[in-house]
Write a structure and sequence with these properties.
The chain contains 14 helices and ten strands. By secondary structure, it is an alpha+beta fold. It has two domains: about 190 residues, no CATH class; about 170 residues, no CATH class. A hairpin with a 2-residue loop joins strand 6 and strand 7. Helix 2 packs antiparallel against helix 10 and helix 10 runs parallel beside helix 13. The longest helix is centred in the C-terminal third of the chain and has 44 residues.
Length: about 400
């Protein structure tokens, strides 16, 4: 019997191709948006999680102010004094400092403004580079003997940042001081990082006229120590030095795991909001299915009367129309899934070529869930019209013109 119901439903939908396609259009848009956003979102999250794993879970980031004010400019400052305090905390293996500033950069008469970071050239450089994902792919890294050497971001030499792309060995000016390009960083994934310059920390202090200021301290914990416990000890040492009570901190200490958790929370919230907006299309699609089913019942009133007159029960009529509305949702979901996957793959291709290697997370669970969800939306939307059809008086239905 169910097989006959399905065959009857498909023939009815096929007989009204144009109306059916218009009906499922909103479902198609909603499901396509949801599938594309979820697959891209979780693909991006997986990619970033991999980057966090590469930097390791034994890193601490210590900043003046909170996380936002660190990048916007805070009222407090760190100096060598705070770096010394961090280095003395039990469980800290190595700690390094860096400073950064938007500076005027010139190459062959072409002037740009971009971030220039001063990083140490001693053994603490490695902890800075691993945490910040700095990876030299061309030329060499900075050495302790370097003073006027620079490493440039990937886009500086590969994407027309200047009118003419500089190369390793070329001279580039930072705030009027000449530097030799000795290396090129690999692509990090955002324009700010990929257009920055790295220069020796001591040289950066001279160029920026910042003899003492430190913008960020990055530390690595000893093997066998819990980074969370060490972070608490660092906070306690800084509070004691600044005569602050717990909760009054004018600095931030975070482990790499905490940074990852913070990002994941923010990312999940944004993803939920965007999916919520896309779900409006599904609501519109459900209303469209309901409207179409009401019209279909009006057009097929005599047909309903004939079915009931030859023995069809109320539950049979209800089932037929519920299957039809469910299939409208299912068809819309199937087309939406195909379009959503296509959009996700297209975005993946563009991002992978321009920014970072991104792989979309298209899973069978996602597709099955999207199809089931669209089928349920169809059934829910068609319930009231189907119920109305099931309760029709066959005599009245047969007289309907």
């Amino acid at each position: 019997m169910l097989k006959e119901y399905v065959r009857f439903t498909i023939s009815n939908i096929a007989a009204r191709k144009k109306r059916s396609m218009l009906t499922i259009l909103a479902i198609v848009i909603g499901i396509a948006a949801v599938v594309a956003l979820i697959s891209l979102g979780y693909g991006l999250q997986n990619t970033i999680d991999e980057q966090f794993e590469l930097m390791g879970t034994d890193k601490l980031m210590i900043m003046p102010g909170d996380l936002m004010s660190t990048f916007m400019g805070s009222g407090t400052e760190f100096t060598q004094h705070e770096l010394d305090i961090v280095q003395r905390v039990n469980g800290i293996k190595v700690a390094g400092a860096m400073i950064y500033k938007v500076a005027r950069v010139e190459f062959r008469g072409d002037t740009k403004y971009t971030y220039v970071s001063g990083i140490p050239t001693d053994e603490t450089r490695e902890v800075i580079e691993s945490m910040q994902n700095f990876n030299v792919v061309e030329g060499r890294d900075l050495k302790e003997s370097d003073t006027n050497a620079a490493i440039v971001g990937y886009l500086v030499v590969n994407n027309g940042f200047f009118e003419k792309n500089p190369e390793v060995g070329d001279k580039i000016d930072v705030e009027g001081r000449s530097f030799k390009i000795v290396g090129v960083m690999g692509r990090i994934g955002n324009e700010g990082d990929d257009t920055q310059l790295l220069i020796p920390l001591d040289t950066a202090r001279e160029v920026f006229d910042e003899p003492d200021k430190i913008d960020i301290i990055i530390a690595q914990t000893e093997d066998g120590y819990d980074p969370g416990s060490v972070a608490e000890d660092v906070s306690e040492a800084l509070r004691k030095d600044r005569s602050l009570k717990k909760g009054e901190e004018d600095f931030t200490v975070q482990t790499s795991e905490q940074l990852m958790d913070t990002f994941s929370s923010i990312f999940s919230l944004v993803l939920m909001v965007v999916i919520g907006i896309a779900a409006i299309s599904l609501l519109v699609g459900g209303i469209g299915i309901m409207n179409t089913m009401y019209m279909s019942i009006l057009e097929r009133t005599r047909e309903i009367g004939v079915m009931k007159s030859i023995g069809a029960m109320n539950k049979d009529v209800l089932t037929i129309f519920l299957i039809e509305s469910g299939f409208l949702g299912l068809f819309g979901g199937a087309v939406g899934c195909a379009i959503g996957i296509g959009i996700a793959k297209a975005v993946e291709l563009v991002i992978s070529q321009q920014f970072i290697a991104l792989k979309t997370a298209v899973t069978w669970e996602l597709i099955a869930g999207a199809l089931l969800f669209s089928f349920i939306i169809g059934i829910i939307s068609g319930f009231l019209p189907a119920r109305r059809a099931a309760k029709m008086d066959p005599v009245v239905a047969l007289r309907y013109e």
